[in-house]
Specification:
heterodimer, A: mainly alpha, two-stranded antiparallel ribbon, about 5% strand, globular, B: mainly alpha
Chain lengths: ~500, ~500
């Protein structure tokens, strides 16, 4: 059933492109129903997994016999959690794009292609197939930004595409090398992980592949595509970009680099741990200095993804489960933040400049927006009760023994995170005159629509529910970490 | 029906068609051209069904003595190296005739020349005797020359002459070298020559039968054949004709030049150069691989700098064929003799043949798009006069966009698997060359995205106001090509099934 998330999205993408000419309005319903369908299928399909989070093979047929590549889809608890995230983010994205009228058919067509490719990445168990879906995801995000974007969209789209391609090139080299060195003429992840390579080859392969994927995960200093890309993207695309696409990179690091080349972790943990720590603090500090509302959120994504990377390179059970948890949590929260900035504020006020926004007390004009953003901001700071807290707590505890310095720096990053979040909440919603400035706007701002409320409500619920009852996710993540795929990593890092 | 001379009929159908075209009344010219090219397509469809994909051997062979005094036979046959190229030639000619539009395709001379070119292509890809092969190789030049000279842009005369002189010069060098080989080996039969070379017999006979030339005669002969083929591909530094020719020829002709004719050069490497000169190739492998890498990088950066759609795509073609050459040269590396290496070499060579077909398809589709674009802009193809066309021609933008992404090697479209196989094969044998070529891959992503941005995005240009989207007929022409891109991208086995058995068979005697 999980495999149908992918087929449903691609079929809906085709239908949406088809509807582009005759009835573009239909396409948003296609998008909404297929995203909801994907979410439902993802949740329902998860129950078929053996022992809660074990590995379930969905499809396995020969694809390119010459290379031994197979069309092999499978899922474990980690995939399932990320499939849920994709379903949630995709549905919310459609709800927040309900007002897209410029070439809506194509917009949702690309959007659903992107969603389908993301499902494909999370469910592929054949390394070549994984790479194929990973690359396919680049095209729709390029077009979504280049056509429907805003600030410097062509630059943002090109930069994102080139960074992605460069990262992919590194991954491609590592992938071919792993395929050849392991031998056996197969790209099967389980097979590749059970044939450990020599320490030396694991070491350089780990570095190369981890780096290649980390570009997409926004690891400092390869993160610069992320803020520009996020800012240039239309609301739904930046929700998916920050919410899901950056997770593709982190997922690649986890699924490929860590499980196939566990011996490389020891050699590289110091380097990547340092970069992750610097990224957390750097992203937060830069976010503090921004004058564009969306850039604040863009840099905060870089900072939060640093936690994912820190958890991954810690390599402990706690670090890994924290990293996956953080992927889910940040996916939801970043989606919500970008939705508020792009859809609720920018579409109505037509500015994202913090100075201009602080002229009018938006909390009075758009109370729902103010509440949503404040709650999302609290979640983003990592306040207990929200999902971010559980995630970051796990990451920091998991990384504590290995990287005390970087954990301390990440702690400072957390404090700066509180500062920049409060700063934008204050500036955007609670400063300025209480009365509407004169001359009065000719017409009042458009009220928050029902789809927006539904989307915001859905994401807020998700972060709260998961924050209050983390077992909802942990019961899936932890069994997945016990599968044979992680056996070598478990042995080496001693958990 | 096993004795049915399918390949001979296939080769001569276009010639008969061309002669017929010169006789039919003017209003029937286009319909006749369509029928003849469709007939070729039908024959090839039949050929593909009769082709035994499991054997890997030469099939549908026909061998009749022709010039007994020189040991020249009329010798045709197909195997996995050639069968897809025959199919490609059959596909691209009707495609080119459709794209060319009513005016040109209705011109009996134009259509007849295209059909003669098709005959030369069929002949080159099926002939197994050097003289017979060479005849078709040279014959292809004549229609190409006239197509450029008569229907090209303002600078067409110079371009046509340059093209002719370059390729003819290369061909002469090749002919002279092969004559010497004949004197030593006593045959022009490419299959026999392969066996003689593999057993070391040819290397022994060369100094024996041609004394007075010293030890390096083999290398000299190798270079002669290499020159002829390298000009056609082209490799740096023999690419001087490329950009002027592709920029001057009408895109519907360039479609055939790059889609099918450029494959003749790479095919020559696979059919003649590597089998006949395996040792010499290995001796010069380092410089040759370097040349292929330089071609890849040079063409990629040159494409990035072009201000014109035609010229950018010309260098893009050169870049893509560079990968094919890299793959086939690296497969000859002595390191490929080890077991793991042999499988890497098989992978690379399968990738090369697949890449030839894929590039033919994609480049043809791209130049077809250029033709359709220029018909609407009165021949303008400079980037600075284009832009924003997506708003007025979304269908055109979509179809050309897919072709561009196929060319870029995006997974899910045809280009990816071929290039992946080449890289997977080259990496274990020549990691440095593979790494450097990877830069070419990145740059090609860069210039191709640039192309899309400059043509389709941004504000709509003055020229674009009268720009209309594709007509139903034009869409119907392009859609089969695009469908094939998806099909081969998702199920590459469709093509690999034809290629792989031959590669495995063909490769074994090649590594001494």
């Amino acid at each position: 059933m999980l495999a149908w998330t992918l087929y449903l999205s691609f079929a809906a993408a085709l239908a949406s492109f088809g509807a582009a000419r005759c009835c573009p309005a239909l396409s948003r319903w296609i998008a909404l129903l297929s995203s909801l369908g994907g979410l439902t299928l993802g949740i329902a399909g998860a129950w078929a997994l053996p022992s809660g989070g074990g590995l379930l093979t969905l499809v396995k047929v020969p694809w390119i016999p010459l290379l031994g590549a197979e069309y092999h889809l499978a899922a474990d608890g980690i995939s399932v959690v990320l499939v849920w995230l994709t379903g949630l983010a995709a549905t919310a994205g459609v709800l927040f794009s309900w007002n897209v009228s410029h070439r809506a058919g194509e917009f949702f067509g690309w959007y659903l292609t992107l969603v389908g490719a993301v499902y494909g990445v999370f469910l592929s168990w054949d390394l070549l197939l994984f790479f194929v879906f990973y690359e396919i995801a680049i095209v729709p995000k390029y077009f979504l930004i280049a056509i429907w974007g805003s600030t410097r969209r062509e630059y943002g789209a090109m930069k994102l595409a080139l960074y992605s391609f460069a990262g992919s090139a590194a991954v491609l080299i590592g992938l071919i090398a792993a395929y050849l060195l392991v031998g056996g003429n197969t790209f099967d992840l389980t097979h590749l992980s059970t044939r450990p390579l020599s320490e030396a080859s694991q070491s350089w392969l780990f570095g190369l592949i981890f780096l290649g994927f980390a570009v997409l995960a926004g690891l400092w200093p390869f993160h610069t595509w992320a803020p520009t890309g996020h800012v240039a993207a239309p609301t739904a695309a930046s929700m998916l970009l920050a919410g899901v696409i950056m997770k593709l990179g982190a997922y690649g690091c986890l699924r490929v680099a860590l499980t196939l080349f566990p011996a490389g972790l020891a050699a590289w943990a110091g380097v990547f741990g340092a970069l992750a720590g610097i990224g957390i603090l750097w992203g937060a500090l830069v976010a503090l200095r921004q004058t564009d509302f969306k850039f604040v959120i863009g840099y905060s994504s870089v900072s939060h993804m640093g936690f994912v990377m820190l958890g991954l390179v810690a390599g402990t059970s706690l670090g890994l489960s924290g990293a996956v948890f953080q992927m889910f949590s940040h996916g939801i929260i970043a989606g919500l933040l970008f939705a508020v900035v792009g859809r609720m504020v920018y579409d109505r006020c037509h500015t994202r400049n913090l100075d201009e926004l602080s002229q009018q007390r938006l909390a009075h004009v758009l109370p729902f927006t103010a509440i949503t953003f404040t709650l999302a901001g609290l979640a983003s700071m990592g306040l207990p009760g929200f999902s971010g807290f559980v995630a970051e707590l796990q990451v920091l505890t998991g990384a504590w023994t290995r990287f005390p310095v970087w954990v301390a720096i990440a702690g400072i990053g957390l404090i700066v995170g509180v500062a920049y979040t409060l700063r934008v909440i204050q500036l955007v919603f609670f400063s300025g005159e209480t009365t509407v400035p004169s001359p009065a706007p000719s017409e009042p701002l458009e009220p928050i629509s029902l789809p927006e409320k539904l989307g915001a409500g859905m994401l807020l619920t998700a972060t709260l529910v998961v924050g209050l009852y983390p077992r909802l996710l942990l019961d899936w993540i932890l069994p997945a970490l016990q599968t044979p795929l992680f056996a070598e990593l478990r042995r080496r890092t001693g958990w | 029906m096993n004795d049915w001379p399918l390949l001979t009929l296939l080769t001569f159908t276009p010639l008969a068609g061309a002669l017929l075209l010169l006789r039919v009344p003017a209003p029937w010219v286009r319909a006749t051209g369509r029928c003849i090219s469709a007939l070729g397509l039908l024959q090839v469809a039949w050929l593909l069904t009769r082709f035994d994909t499991s054997s890997g051997a030469l099939q549908l062979v026909q061998k009749v003595p022709w010039i007994p005094s020189l040991g020249v036979d009329y010798f045709v046959g197909v195997d996995g190296l050639s069968v897809l190229l025959v199919a490609l030639s059959a596909l691209l000619v009707p495609f080119a005739l459709e794209v060319a539009g009513a005016e040109r395709a209705g011109d009996r001379n134009f259509s007849a020349l295209i059909l003669v070119l098709q005959m030369a292509l069929f002949g080159t890809f099926t002939a197994l005797n050097f003289i017979h092969w060479f005849l078709h190789w040279e014959l292809a030049l004549v229609p190409a020359y006239f197509l450029i000279k008569l229907w090209g842009r303002e600078d067409r005369r110079g371009a046509a002459t340059q093209f002719f002189v370059y390729t003819f010069g290369g061909s002469v060098a090749m002919l002279v070298a092969m004559q010497a080989v004949y004197l030593a080996a006593g045959t022009f039969d490419l299959i026999q020559l392969r066996e003689l070379a593999a057993s070391g017999e040819l290397a022994r006979r060369l100094p024996e039968r041609l004394p007075g030339w010293g030890e390096n005669l083999g290398l000299l002969l190798f270079l002669g054949v290499f020159l002829g083929l390298a000009v056609k591909v082209p490799l740096v530094p023999f690419h001087g004709w490329l950009a002027p020719t592709y920029a001057s020829a009408p895109p519907c002709v360039t479609l055939l030049l790059t889609g099918a004719m450029s494959k003749m050069g790479v095919y020559g490497f696979l059919r003649i150069l590597l089998p006949v000169f395996p040792h010499q190739t290995q001796t010069l492998l380092g410089p040759l691989v370097a040349l292929a890498v330089i071609t890849i990088l040079f063409a990629a950066f040159a494409a990035l700098a072009q201000p014109d759609l035609r010229r950018m795509l010309a260098y893009s073609s050169m870049n893509h064929l560079g990968y094919a050459l890299l793959g086939l040269l690296v497969a000859m590396d002595p390191a490929a003799r080890s077991i793991a290496g042999a499988s890497a070499a098989t992978t690379a060579l399968s990738g090369v043949v697949l890449q030839l077909f894929n590039h033919g398809l994609t480049a043809a589709a791209l130049f077809a798009c250029v033709e359709l674009l220029e018909r609407r802009t009165n021949g303008v193809s400079r980037f600075d006069q284009l832009g924003g066309l997506r708003t007025v021609a979304p269908v055109f933008a979509g179809l050309m966009g897919i072709s561009v992404f196929a060319s870029l090697g995006l997974p899910g479209l045809n280009g990816f698997i071929g290039e992946f196989l080449i890289f997977a094969g080259v990496f274990p044998i020549a990691p440095l060359a593979a790494l450097l070529s990877l830069i070419g891959l990145l740059v090609s992503a860069w210039f191709l995205l640039n192309l899309l941005q400059r043509v389709f995005q941004g504000p709509l240009v003055e020229l674009g106001r009268s720009f209309t989207d594709l007509t139903v007929r034009e869409i119907v022409t392009l859609v089969p090509a695009v469908t094939l891109m998806f099909l081969l991208g998702i199920v590459p086995q469709l093509a690999l099934a034809f290629i792989n058995p031959t590669i495995q068979r063909f490769f074994t005697p090649l590594t001494p």
